[in-house]
Write a structure and sequence with these properties.
Elements: E1 2-7, E2 13-18, H1 26-38, H2 43-62, H3 67-72, H4 74-83, H5 86-89, H6 113-132, H7 139-144, E3 145-149, E4 166-170, H8 186-195, H9 199-210, H10 215-219, E5 226-227, E6 243-246, E7 264-267, H11 270-284, H12 310-324, H13 332-345, H14 350-357, H15 373-381, H16 386-389
Antiparallel strand pairs: 1-2, 3-4, 5-6, 6-7
Helix pairs in contact: 1-2, 1-6, 2-6, 8-9, 8-12, 9-11, 9-13, 13-14
Length: about 400
Amino acid sequence: MRAFPVSLPSGQRYWTVLDEDLQVVGIADEYLRHQRFGRDGAESTTKAYAYSIALFLRWCARTGRSWQAGVEQFALFMTWLAHAGPLASGVDAVGGASGVVLAGPGAAPARCPSRINGVLTAVRGMVVHAVATGNGSAGLVSMLYEVADDRDLPPEARNDEGRLAWRMRARHRLREPETTIDRASDEQIVALLRACRSARDRLIVLLMARAGLRRGEVCGLRRSDVHLLVDSHRLGCDVARAHLHVVRREDNPNEAWAKSRRQRVVPLDFLVVQLFDVYEFERMRVADAADSDFVFVNLFRGKLGAPMRPDTIGELMAAASRRAGLDARIRPHQLRHAFGSNVVDAGAGIDVVADLLGHVSVASSQVYLHPDSSRLRAAVDAVPSPRELGAVTR
């Protein structure tokens, strides 16, 4: 079993699962096509799901189980995921007994809890879809889910009427250790800006660090998405002041897509607007860039005027990190995390953070409400001491 990309005549792509004879696995393909086209999911989502489902079907095949029997033994699959490394769980694992895993006492797990939970989520989705389309018995769903109340959810995700609500909760899930978000510090962002060699690169860093854009959203920006006027009514837009629109487009030649199906508006501050002006003068010096509607194009290497690819953003960040003398390379998503954290520190509510970052669920923004050690220290230091209040004289 292996994940495999599929290109349709229309140019759209999704990922599916092939068996050992390189035949499409129908039960997986139907779900992945539904995820991509029925729910307008991203191609990257079907890729991640296809690899996860292939792992499950590979385990079923190598242990002599049908996929329905595998659902009944889901806990065993979780154990296999935790201890089966690449030699046992990979596509090229040798021998029919490769499904048997022997791990010594104290052996490090092959996959972390978050990775295992991600695999289980994809498999559960496939099973529920199979039951809904009549390809599986209804009893399979009750093996994966139990009825639970919503008391463990954050207040923003509970019933609006304040009454106790019921929901389906996954039976199989590993506890993930609480970790602080891996954000770039303000000092690292300043160092990156100083290390950038062009206005274009500085603007890219600022859009991720001060507008929270993903690298795919940065590369997918069109010039028509950016509104820098005080009043944009002449452009057919009712949003006041400088802002940009994050729009998902499937036909971008650089394969840069916004992750969310929902369009969102992101306000821009004066610093970003000012750098847009500087970048425009820099771009005007490259004649090949004049006809491109993409905001960010190649100005110094490659095909001049062609839209930048998302991978280029990672290369740009790595080079700037080296020139800045940083101990570790700053990744694009760390800048986005920095924006989310700074917005929370400025007093914004979780609903505002979710809208700015394009999160479908406010639960995805919960991570920014858990401060790191430096923010905890700053909060304690901000509390007036008894000496300052006059309660202690010496």
